[in-house]
């Protein structure tokens, strides 16, 4: 779990928010629908069990943006968002609470997608331009002033030991033949050099186990291949050697998370939520929570403190969703009603 500490309290308040955050809880990012400008966060109060619905809409009269696709909790307690549709970076100090910085991305075909940080710099993938861009974080956000080339349609990004790990999707069938589509790119932002490891078509999800030094790479396969019965799945890459440790072909794969304290691997695929004991196990993955509906279990997160799991249920992508809070053995602890397409959950 990414845990905020204290706010800076130095930045000029860009947009003061009327509703304070609970002392502790979950922040659920719902990306909404393309071109509807209805992305927002839902804030669950751990103490009362109540939820602040459509937080920005109810606090400011406006939603957070269009397809706000990622959020990162910074070490000082602020939260950084990327808005793909409205082409913005947004910095929230939840302790005030206030939006302390916004950057409008003005360059052509901008599509800030996923983000990470190294030190006082942010890095985000640009889905349409095949780039990672970077800028400084201080009391406010500086405009991106570094550009690194990537493979086609970069999605997820993770920082580890000073390097960036990037999922180059190829955008399904659209750009699957372009060089480095479906690769895990390992980029050194100091030298600007990259290594590419082929994973599989439509690589979109990354999850890292820093304790055991490997990264899980989840790929969906292309729509045309899925229709033919071909599978997506997960490949696990050794962070020391960059060799592929093992492969797990899966039907209807959607997300994967790693429990660093126990070594367990959790993933969503056909049937529901599965667990695999550890990277070296020869056991058969166990279905611990069956999806008995036609709902789309869209995203998966994990609380690093108590190992609870967060399933983002998008239902049919058009309706309001929910977050299922699940124990490590698959018992449902809470169902939290949220907005459309819950993409990410963080605890604070």
Please provide a written account of the structure:
This protein has 348 residues and is mostly beta strands. The chain folds into two domains: 1-105, no CATH class; 106-347, YVTN repeat-like/Quinoprotein amine dehydrogenase (Methylamine Dehydrogenase, Chain H, 7 Propeller). The chain has two helices and 29 strands. It has a five-stranded antiparallel beta sheet, with no helix packed on it. The chain has a four-stranded antiparallel beta sheet with strand order 4-3-2-29. A hairpin with a 2-residue loop joins strand 13 and strand 14.
Question: Layout of helices and strands, plus pairs?
Answer:
Layout: E1 15-16, E2 25-30, E3 40-45, E4 51-52, H1 55-60, E5 68-73, E6 78-83, E7 88-93, E8 98-104, E9 112-118, E10 121-126, E11 131-136, E12 146-149, E13 154-160, E14 163-168, E15 183-187, E16 194-198, E17 203-209, E18 214-219, H2 223-227, E19 232-238, E20 244-250, E21 255-258, E22 265-269, E23 272-276, E24 286-290, E25 296-302, E26 309-315, E27 322-326, E28 332-337, E29 342-347
Antiparallel strand pairs: 1-8, 2-3, 2-29, 3-4, 5-6, 6-7, 7-8, 9-10, 10-11, 11-12, 13-14, 14-15, 15-16, 17-18, 18-19, 19-20, 21-22, 22-23, 23-24, 25-26, 26-27, 27-28
């Amino acid at each position: 779990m990414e845990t905020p500490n204290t706010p800076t309290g130095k930045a000029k308040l860009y947009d003061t928010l009327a509703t304070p955050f609970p002392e502790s809880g979950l922040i659920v990012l719902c990306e909404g629908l393309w071109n509807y400008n209805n992305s927002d966060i839902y804030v669950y109060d751990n103490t009362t069990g109540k939820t602040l619905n459509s937080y920005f809409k109810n606090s400011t009269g406006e939603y957070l943006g269009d397809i706000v696709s990622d959020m990162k909790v910074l070490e000082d307690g602020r939260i950084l968002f990327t808005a793909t549709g409205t082409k913005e970076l947004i910095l929230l100090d939840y302790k005030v609470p206030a939006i302390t910085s916004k950057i409008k991305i003005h360059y052509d075909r901008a599509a800030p997608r996923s983000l990470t940080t190294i030190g006082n710099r942010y890095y985000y993938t640009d889905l349409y331009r095949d780039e990672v861009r970077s800028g400084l974080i201080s009391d406010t956000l500086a405009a991106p002033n570094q550009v690194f080339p990537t493979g086609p349609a970069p999605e997820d990004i993770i920082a580890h030991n000073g390097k960036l790990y990037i999922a180059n999707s190829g955008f399904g069938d659209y750009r699957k033949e372009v060089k480095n589509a479906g690769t895990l790119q390992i980029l050194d932002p100091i030298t600007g050099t990259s290594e590419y490891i082929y994973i599989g078509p439509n690589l979109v999800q990354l999850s890292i186990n820093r304790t055991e030094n490997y990264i899980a790479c989840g790929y969906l396969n292309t729509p045309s291949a899925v229709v033919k019965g071909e599978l997506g799945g997960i490949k696990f890459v050794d962070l020391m050697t960059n060799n592929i440790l093992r492969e797990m072909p899966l039907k209807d794969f959607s997300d994967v998370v790693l429990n660093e304290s126990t070594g367990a691997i959790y993933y969503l695929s056909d049937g529901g939520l599965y667990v695999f004991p550890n990277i070296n196990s020869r056991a058969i993955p166990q279905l611990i929570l069956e999806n008995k509906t036609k709902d789309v279990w869209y995203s998966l997160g994990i609380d690093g403190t108590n190992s609870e799991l967060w399933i983002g249920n998008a239902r049919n992508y058009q309706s309001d969703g929910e977050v299922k809070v699940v124990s490590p053995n698959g018992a449902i602890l809470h169902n939290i009603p949220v907005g459309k397409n819950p993409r990410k959950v963080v605890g604070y």
